Amino acid sequence: MKNELVLAISGNDIYSGGGLYADLITYAAHGQHGFVAVTCLTAMTEQGFEVFATDTEVFRHQLNSLVHVPFSAVKIGLLPNVEIAGLTLDFIQQHATIPVILDPVLVCKETHDVEVTALREELFKLFPYATILTPNLAEAQLLTQKEIKTLKDMEIAAKELHRLGAKAVVIKGGTRFSESEAIDLFYDGQNLELLRQPLLEGNNTGAGCTFASAIASLIVNGESVSKAVAGAKEFVYRSIQKSDKYGVIQYEK
User: Fold this and answer.
1) How far apart are CA 226 and CA 235, in angstroms?
2) What is the structure's pLDDT at 1?
3) Is domain 5-241 in CATH 3.40.1190.20, yes or no?
4) Which residue spans traverse the membrane (predicted)?
C-alpha cells in the first residue's frame, strides 16, 4: 500500500499533548507519513504559557523546502502572527487541489496572547481553500463576532463560517451544552449534523489537534468529509480513553 504523505503546518506543544506531536502520531496511527513546518515554539515561563513565533525567514525556508513534496493533504494549526499566516496562504495556493484541514487556533487554552484581531482577516483568506474548518466554540465566536450560548447559536455560526468560504465546518462544542456528552456540529452547506460522544476525564491529549489531523488522515484514506469527521470524533474518544494523564496513547496494533 502506498505510504501517503501528509503535512502539518503547526506549532510545538512543550507538553507534547497537542500541536505537531499530536499531528504526527495521528498520521502514523492511520498509516501515513507526516511532515511538519513548525510555526512556533511554546514554553512555560514566569509570565505563564507563552508562544514564540518561528522567525519569518526560517518559516519561509521550511515551506520552500517542501514545495515539491507530493502531499495528499495539509492540516493547518496554530498560526502565531500575520506574517506566518500570509506565508501559509502562499503555500496553500500552490497546493490548491489537495484537501486542506484548517484548525484556526486563535485562542490557546492557557493564554490569549495570540494576536486575534489581526489574524482574523488573514484566516478569512484561507477559508476558500479549506476543505473543512474545525474551530472550537471560542474560535467560532471570534471568527463570527457572535456569542454562542445554545446549539441553535452554534448552527448559525457554522452557516456563517460556511458563507465566508469554508466548504465544510465542524464546530467543537466540547462540554458547553451537556454535562455528560461532548457535542460537535457539522455543516457542509446542505447537511447539518450533531455528533455526540460521552465525556471522559481529561488528560494531556491534544483533542483539537488530534481531531483535525484525524480528519485529514481519514480523507486521505478515502472517506468523505462527513464520514471523516465522524471517524475523527471516534478516534479522539478512543485516544483519550486509552491514554494516561500525560497523553501517552496505547494504540491498538
Assistant:
1) 14
2) 44
3) yes
4) none
